[in-house]
Amino acid sequence: MTNTNNPNRAVGKSADEHASVRVDGIDGDAVRSDGARDGHDHDGPRHEHSGDDHGSDSHSHGGHDHSGHDHSGHSHAGHSHAHAPIPGHGRAFALAVALNVLIVVIQAIYGVIAHSTALLADAGHNLSDVLGLLLAWGAGWLATRRPSARYTFGYGSSSILASLANAGLLLFACGVIVAEAIGRLMNPAPVAGLAVFVVATTGVVVNGISAWLFMRGQKEDLNIRGAFLHMAADAGISAAVAISGLVILYTDWTWLDPVMSLLVVAVVVVGTWGLLRDSVRLALDAVPPGVDLGHIREYLATQPGVVDVHDLHVWALSTTGNALSAHLVMPAGHPGDESLDAIVIVLRERFSMQHATLQVDLGTTEHHCAMEHAGHAH
């Protein structure tokens, strides 16, 4: 039996307890911009690909010397990886960080001058957002780095970790604000309402601009969504502080400031919970949101020559890219590169699978996925 291996799938991600005819097809249109070389690891007969030119992230094996290497049933479809973050957000991160550092300094200074714990709490929240933005920015940069021998998928998953850290930071900041608000309710203090109103209004403008910078792409990229939520939450908190400052200026209702803070925190927590949930799921290699595994299985099972589909796995490579691996039982054998390429194209265009690996099994032996028995290992 001929065994051929996916040139991009990291060894150990889904180790199966058998050797069968394996063919792979990878997305050939969404070209990477960084010219990364892919790490190749072949379980069977080995040959080096260090000379491949991946400038367009598609390659041909016509120029390799494969003496002694049987390529019958071995298909290397042209491929690419959509790991890079949405273009243009590097400048957005830089501008947002600069604006938020400025507003943190202003709010902290005037919070002390105006005896406003609300402004100080808002400054602390903005500081946590600066750290969150730096995390998201760094993750976006890492996602553009080329794969290595150790990180064969590149560093796209760093954006998942950054979105998880962002959610944690935001919830932590909410906890600090709640504690501060409760303290203000129990021990009211005089507040310079006008100073609070002016500084908080400035914060609304700055954070509103920052949120606008991330509005494009926040639906497609979980990492950008985290940055957008941070900035939008900041704008809402600053607005609540500004309103309370204006009301306090005319009524001396000092209790209004902490009450408004608690209301804003409730809204922020509701929005952040979804981000935290999705981030944890992606970090655990769960099926990404919006992907219907049943429809994918049904599509693969209805392809000509396929009698069964097993070991179907879908996971996120980053906050913008998904990967798939599956075994297709085809008793008639390898259907040809064109047939497999057509399947891969549909997986990419209809099901958003930027990286697909398909292994063809003849069905002559019983197959067991090692992952199904992981819980019984001793």
UniProtKB/TrEMBL annotation:
Residues 95-281 form the Cation efflux protein transmembrane domain. GO terms for molecular function: zinc ion transmembrane transporter activity. Keywords: Ion transport, Membrane, Transmembrane, Transmembrane helix, Transport, Zinc, Zinc transport. Its main location: membrane. It is a multi-pass membrane protein. Residues 1-84 are annotated as: Disordered. It is found in: Membrane. GO terms for cellular component: plasma membrane. Residues 288-361 form the Cation efflux protein cytoplasmic domain. The chain crosses the membrane at residues 92-113, 125-143, 155-179, 191-215, 227-249, 255-276. Residues 14-73 have a biased composition (Basic and acidic residues). Belongs to the cation diffusion facilitator (CDF) transporter (TC 2.A.4) family. SLC30A subfamily. This is Cobalt-zinc-cadmium efflux system protein. It comes from Paraburkholderia bryophila.
